[in-house]
């Protein structure tokens, strides 16, 4: 299974999964249809599946038109998103398995950003498609869920092997790391990563994928045991520390 980033909208990524042996493809969170169709035509691939992580419009915007172009398309999404994902015809729950290119992908229920959010973990290839739950250097906002739900979801993802590639759905890394450095300035690994990402973004290069190992060392939303973050937030329990950090990040966006 090969993974290709497709840029969409302002800062979205759609992920094109391809199987060279069969000439088939799947996409994760098609924000819009045109870039997907261009990529399929360029690669000579037939689309067979859409893997949606959640119902937000910037993740499902291309569903209907892709279904019109490929009427046999399987459109996967959380059972809790029933009626909110256009064209959905397969409902998934935690622990279910999807298949593509002969590889099984485990469905992880990771609510917080939304109540029905799921992620897809392909253990054999080491690929995690996590939508807006975990970002490179950050995490999604709490639009529907609670801090406790999100912290639990992030802990599940953080427990995956450190070599796992993290394919998150937005190019938010630079802003995330600038916030991270503001709350944990003593983290040398974070300072090094921030400098590297600044260089990449000056060249308009992508910062995705990340890895679980890199996130564990530099993403404040996974670093609940950091003494510096505990001092910064005045919190020690993972949920309380996460909630404080998320509140700080929400305000940081608008400074």
TrEMBL record:
Q: What are the EC numbers?
A: 3.1.2.6
Q: Which cofactor does it need?
A: Zn(2+)
MF annotations from Gene Ontology: hydroxyacylglutathione hydrolase activity; metal ion binding
Q: How is the cofactor bound?
A: Binds 2 Zn(2+) ions per subunit.
- Would you say which domain of life the source belongs to? Bacteria
Segments forming domain Metallo-beta-lactamase: 11-170
Under SMART domains, the record lists: Lactamase_B
- Residues engaged in binding Zn(2+) 2: 58-59, 132, 170
Fetch the InterPro entries from UniProt: Clx_II_MBL, Glyoxalase_II_hydrolase, HAGH_C, Hydroxyacylglutathione_Hdrlase, Metallo-B-lactamas, RibonucZ/Hydroxyglut_hydro
Q: Which reaction does it catalyse?
A: an S-(2-hydroxyacyl)glutathione + H2O = a 2-hydroxy carboxylate + glutathione + H(+)
Where, in this chain's numbering, is Zn(2+) 1 bound? 54, 56, 113, 132
The protein's UniProt keywords, in alphabetical order, are: Hydrolase, Metal-binding, Zinc
Which pathway does the database say it acts in? Answer: Secondary metabolite metabolism; methylglyoxal degradation; (R)-lactate from methylglyoxal: step 2/2
Protein function: Thiolesterase that catalyzes the hydrolysis of S-D-lactoyl-glutathione to form glutathione and D-lactic acid.
By sequence similarity, the record places it as follows:
Belongs to the metallo-beta-lactamase superfamily. Glyoxalase II family.
Q: What is the protein's name according to its record? A: Hydroxyacylglutathione hydrolase
Task: Please state the gene responsible for encoding this protein.
Answer: gloB
